[in-house]
Amino acid sequence: MIRRLIPAVAVVALLAGCSDSTDPARPVGDAAPGTLRVLAGSELADLQPILDEAAKATGISVRFSFTGTIEGAEKVASGAAEQGFDAVWFSSNRYLELVPEAQKRLGTPAKVMSSPVVLGLPAAKVRELGWDTGRVGWAEIAEAAGARKFTYGMTDPSVSNSGFSALVGVAAALSGSGSALDAARIDAVAPQLKEFFSAQKLSAGSSGWLSEAYQRRAQDPGAEVDGLINYESVLLSMPQPLTLVYPSDGVVTADYPLTLLTSASSEARDAHQKLSDHLRSADVQRKIMETTHRRPAVPQVRLDGKFATKDLVELPFPGSQSAVDGLITTYFDRLRRPSRTLYVLDTSGSMQGDRIDGLRQALTGLTGADESLAGRFSRFHGREQVTLLPFSSSARPPLKYEVPQDDPRPVLDQIRATATSLDASGGTAIYSSLRGGYDVLRRQIDADPDRFTSIVLMTDGENTGSEGITDFQLFHQSLSPDLKGIPIFPVLFGESATTEMEQVAKMSGGKVFDARSRSLSAAFKEIRGYQ
Fold this sequence. Notes:
Layout: E1 2-4, E2 19-21, E3 35-40, H1 48-58, E4 61-66, H2 69-78, E5 87-89, H3 94-98, H4 100-103, E6 106-111, E7 113-121, H5 123-129, H6 138-146, E8 152-155, H7 161-175, H8 183-197, E9 200-204, H9 207-218, E10 227-231, H10 232-237, E11 243-245, E12 253-254, E13 257-261, H11 266-279, H12 282-292, E14 295-296, H13 321-335, E15 339-346, H14 354-369, H15 373-378, E16 385-391, E17 399-402, H16 409-420, H17 430-447, E18 452-459, H18 469-477, H19 481-484, E19 488-492, H20 498-508, E20 513-514, H21 520-527
Parallel strand pairs: 2-4, 3-4, 3-5, 8-9, 8-10, 15-16, 15-18, 18-19, 19-20
Antiparallel strand pairs: 1-11, 5-13, 6-13, 7-10, 7-11, 7-12, 7-14, 16-17
Helix pairs in contact: 1-11, 6-8, 7-8, 8-13, 14-16, 14-21, 17-18
């Protein structure tokens, strides 16, 4: 039920060389004997050492391309995944199986391991809450969260399965019906869910980045987050000693099925079978358990003692795609703390032509013009504050919008009109414009501090303004804690100064997104998972 985490040497993180492509629309290579081309969730990157050994033992190599759960489901449903992939490997097939066009393209699955999504808190906090001596359910956890007795971080449920599983799990448990969620049950528990999500202080687009951000905040007094909702395996891999809380009324568990696509060739089918048999063998299952902290998928392998709770109650999953989509939409528009985003946008002369068109399209897509499933979830949400700060030789006046919860379309249309009217001319005063953005945010935070706040910095070139990176570093160091802790997400585009943008991201606790080999729209949608 509750146990102390064992510190591990490494944190689960994305391994940079495991994937031949960051764009799931692009195939990772032509079909070849002995190679399985797999569209996968990014958390599987930590399996690479196991897969390297599997290649030596079986002659079967895995070529990964990583994507989010919802976007991956869309690729499978549309048939795009069949153009360059033999199999899919996500933490769960539950959502895929709710989409008829995706479900019919799924072939043979092989469950390789499992990991429940649970809450991790410092031992002192668990004792303070009285959860160290008895059973605790999701309703009690939600009540304590609503009273701000603890705070936590969680991934975005529209792009990451750990956040998706947490959202489904807490909603199913609070409904108390024991049956699959539907729209009526979601509405009935919305007040309790809103209480629960009021304590969420950190969001991320991936489980690995979430744990890294949590660790950074732990070193910064005043910015700390008490705990995380994440995979058991990720929590067990973290160096900080936390305590795992397993809600007595149940969890949602990732079962990691390596699933052949029905379009796969006979060679790919043979490779899938051979690799699956190897990964499910007792020795490899034990190694997966030891190195990745995930539970074995075969009953003959004894569960390690680090998993204090052996038998977990599995909560019911929603019975329809519409219920899941409605739950995710409700989460963004009504339940979680609203967002505030400042977009610092390069509109210098070098952006003329296709580049400024790409920027217009990226922003327009976030207003609802992108009608794909992933696009609908990444649009600007109800209650969100959006500020556009175009700049060239200097910053232009900020353009501020707040998207209403109940009738967002008029404001979204205003943002769209502004986006389409952006033009390109002048120089590239990156750092003076970025610095000026903090004046805007300072006033907004003073008026309404209880929001997720972030900055998106998009530039296609090197700084030509009078202030440079050193000036900005000195300015950033002088900021108050509430401003200093705002993550900056630079977007590399064109001839961006990569090293400087990486410095900006690092000093602010943000992350760099690369749009040099893909569209700005794809990068802007990916950033939404971190806001």
